UniProtKB/TrEMBL annotation:
<protein>
    <submittedName>
        <fullName>cAMP-binding domain of CRP or a regulatory subunit of cAMP-dependent protein kinases</fullName>
    </submittedName>
</protein>
<dbReference type="GO" id="GO:0016301">
    <property type="term" value="F:kinase activity"/>
</dbReference>
<dbReference type="InterPro" id="IPR014710">
    <property type="entry name" value="RmlC-like_jellyroll"/>
</dbReference>
<dbReference type="Pfam" id="PF00027">
    <property type="entry name" value="cNMP_binding"/>
</dbReference>
<dbReference type="InterPro" id="IPR018490">
    <property type="entry name" value="cNMP-bd_dom_sf"/>
</dbReference>
<dbReference type="InterPro" id="IPR000595">
    <property type="entry name" value="cNMP-bd_dom"/>
</dbReference>
<keyword id="KW-0418">Kinase</keyword>
<keyword id="KW-0808">Transferase</keyword>
<feature type="domain" description="Cyclic nucleotide-binding">
    <location>
        <begin position="9"/>
        <end position="112"/>
    </location>
</feature>
Amino acid sequence: MEHYGYFRQFHDISLADYHLLTDNLQSRSFKKGTAIVVPGQVQRDLYFVKSGVQMAYLEADDKTYVIDFSYAPALCAIAESFSFQAPSKYFLTCLTDTEMACLPHAQLQQLLDQSRSVERLFRRMIERMLADMVDMHINLRAMTIEERYRAFCSKSPELLHLVPHKYIASYLGIDPTNFSKLFNQVRF
């Protein structure tokens, strides 16, 4: 029942459909630093985060560009690799020791065909993810670095203590030195 409340934020899924979705999940553990997906690899399983923090990122020009963080109780995936069963263009790595439950792509497809409620749940989760991505693009273009920092701290304050600041700075499009100044000057 650990993800039931999370799922209900998106769709009023019944207990029967919840169990249809979760009864066949397999637990997986990953150590800090483990790459779950690397460029060129297809993500075969969808992950439901139980504990830990993961980071999606790409490397180019000797720089790390952070795309997203995932942590409980969210999903963890390279969305286009999992959805289309195509090679990933970037990395998905565990920043901390991680516990997740996983569901293979083929099994999820069967569940989506079997249950309209599960299908609606995933559609609404994808809609939320798309809206969040649009918001992030707007924030990167229209907000000052302090506004971005404050918005991040309001949404995910726990990550300030779990994620190396250079990665948060990259995610927010802030130079690491400026991020350090913000971290030391702006209080929550």
